[in-house]
Recover the amino acids of this structure.
């Protein structure tokens, strides 16, 4: 099942157990895989926070992110951080939406607040 929709300048893509939200106003994005429990948030400045480790390759540079609390400082000044689930959800709740924008997804309950 694939669903695509836009609500209040937020692009929504749902594919099986994966949800992607992209705020077209500020560039923030969310990736959530319900089956794996993996969740990542990219803030409006390009910093990525995630609740899981990863092996990452960017422009032929290879990084390992294996321990919670660790981060990678990239050459462009942005950061990729492996944080607790609660911390990533809190940062997403505070940084994904712009003032006055419809809150369509609850990052604490991981559920939509509007009809999709």
């Amino acid at each position: 099942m694939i669903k695509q929709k836009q609500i209040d300048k937020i692009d929504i893509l749902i594919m099986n157990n994966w949800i992607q939200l992209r705020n077209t106003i500020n560039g923030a994005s969310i990736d959530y895989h319900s089956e794996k429990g993996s969740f990542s948030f990219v803030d409006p400045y390009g910093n990525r926070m995630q609740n899981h480790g990863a092996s990452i390759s960017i422009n032929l540079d290879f990084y390992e992110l294996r321990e919670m609390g660790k981060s990678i400082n990239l050459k462009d000044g942005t950061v990729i951080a492996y944080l607790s689930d609660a911390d990533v959800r809190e940062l997403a709740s505070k940084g994904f939406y712009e003032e006055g924008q419809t809150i369509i997804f609850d990052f604490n309950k991981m559920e939509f607040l509007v009809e999709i």
Q: What stands out?
A: The chain has a mean pLDDT of 94. The chain is about 10% helix and 45% strand.
